[in-house]
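Predict the 3D structure for this chain.
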Amino acid sequence: MALTSDQRKQARTIIANYLTKSETHKGKIRYSQFRPLTSLGDPPEKGFTTDCSGLVISAFYWANLFTKKFKIKDPGGYGYSGWGYTGSILSTNKSRRVALNKKFFIGDMALYGPSMGHTTHVTICRRGGGMMDSLWTSHGSEAGPYATRLRYRRDLLCVVRAESLA
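Done. Predicted structure below.
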């Protein structure tokens, strides 16, 4: 069953708060690509180890934990088992692509890579708006989590909206 507008707003607020806390406590969040994710549900203040897709899935998991009357689906498609990755985020949400000239909402996910069959990175929108005023959270081996703008990089494949927030 689709969420109401108020439920989507509540979920987006929780996701934005989680991402803001992750950026604030970035010194406690380490980078590693491993599965299954073992940090789902860990608060950013405690610290944990994850990669870019793990941070995205963790933000949705956090929203799912704190929305008692409705459920937020795993954008990675694995029911919060810890096995989701950038490719599964794309395959689970590719039917809900968002045009780059449209407004972005909290929880939208930008996928990067050399081709649609080979995604290598994902960022998540933590403040909605257009291309120039939206704010995204990225996490990678170089740094993170950190705030960034959505950029027209050559490897930007698409932006997708999660089923629960569509």
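Residues 57 and 75 are 6 Å apart (CA to CA).
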